[in-house]
Amino acid sequence: MIFTIISFSVLGQTSFSKETQSYILHQKGIYVLQNLTIIDGLGVQPKTNQDILINGEIIEAVGIDLPIPENATVINMQGKSAIPGMVMLHEHLFYPKATPGGFGVNQMSYSFPKLYLAGGVTTMRTAGSIMPQADVNLKKFIMNGETPGPKMDVTSPHLDREGTGILELGPFTSTEQAVKMVDFYIEMGVTSIKVYNFISKIDLKAIVDAAHKKGVKVTGHLCSITYREAADIGIDNLEHGFFASSDFIIDKESDACEPFKQYNSVRKLPVDSKKMTDLINHLVNKKVALTSTINVFEPYTNREIVPGGGIDALYPEAKEKVYKRWASKQGKDSLDYVIFNKSKKWEKAFYDAGGLLVAGTDPTYDGRIIAGYANMRLLELFVEMNFTIPEAIKICTLNGAKYLEQDATIGSIEKNKIADIVILNDDISKDIKAIRSIEMVFRNGVAYESKKLFKAANGLVGIR
């Protein structure tokens, strides 16, 4: 299967709005960043005393004591470190709210792009849009310099049949209608398709065929269809690690979504189950990518209220709600810990078996997961999962770029790649918590001030 390669760089902006300029530390130019410790995204050991030569939006050279070109600006970064801009594949531009149906979302077109960029994300896939037209427009605004944010792979709304219960989603009623929705959203400008809980295998086959025909990949947060069935049909990506797998329900009814049975089947599955090993091997053989959103399932007891920090980004009512839920769960989430700890091992096993493990934060559910802050926390959790620091960074950078078929241009700090680089005040090669010391984020050769971007969103998450 050959997919269309989407070039983000050809849309590079030529000018910036006054607002965007206010967050820029260094405009596009010729820079030599000297004396950095670099973890380059390739999964190899850190390199010390490194220089990076940036010319426009391209990394022209990486090495020790690089020659300084005429007219270059030299920036001494002794004691600082650098990683590639993160490429995250399960992000959203909305935040949860209460609705008559029980669950709904508000679009975060102002705060979330800033937070993602501040947190080191230079490319993101929305992995399910509620307002796809807004996301497509926002993608253009960012690339035109009208507002700061990451480059975007915009995903369709969650394609599903009746049953999801999210007020903003419109279910399809026939397979033929589902195919029309695929064509409609691709024509609108989305570059990925997402399927959801209550579809049938016939629906999925038709959606995958329609999307692949137009060079677009399909990902899914499944329930009614097992991971094995979806892999055999030809899905490209599965979301939420193994949390959403219904493969282990005894006597599972075909095309039926039974959330309670699904959850219990995964919770009760032995961590060393041969059934899980067989499923992992099947997914690897079918070349199906797996997106970890492990941070969404991080327990509450003795953990941060908002993983990665950032509670002050929430508007007051949301802050109070998130705090109350966190406090109520202290000492009462032992079952959460059981499945959380198993899932960490299963995702590591998938990676070790040669699977393409990618990453995202999914800022939904109870409002505890916040764009940008959660992305930094996710790196810390990968190290908690016994990945090395270089492996954790590779999962959040180059692996995402490989899935998007953009690894020739983004995902690592290498000669001739786009200058998407995160500069940290502390040495991340020694402590993954240095990810919280982001000073600036180069996106397409332009450096944005992280602290200023974070500050701009304070008190706004949940509002706009």
TrEMBL record:
It comes from the Bacteria. Residues 83-445 form the Amidohydrolase-related domain. InterPro entries: Amidohydro-rel (IPR006680), Metal-dep_hydrolase_composite (IPR011059), Metal_Hydrolase (IPR032466), Metallo-dep_Hydrolase (IPR051781). Transmembrane segments: none annotated. This is Amidohydrolase-related domain-containing protein. It comes from Algibacter aquimarinus.
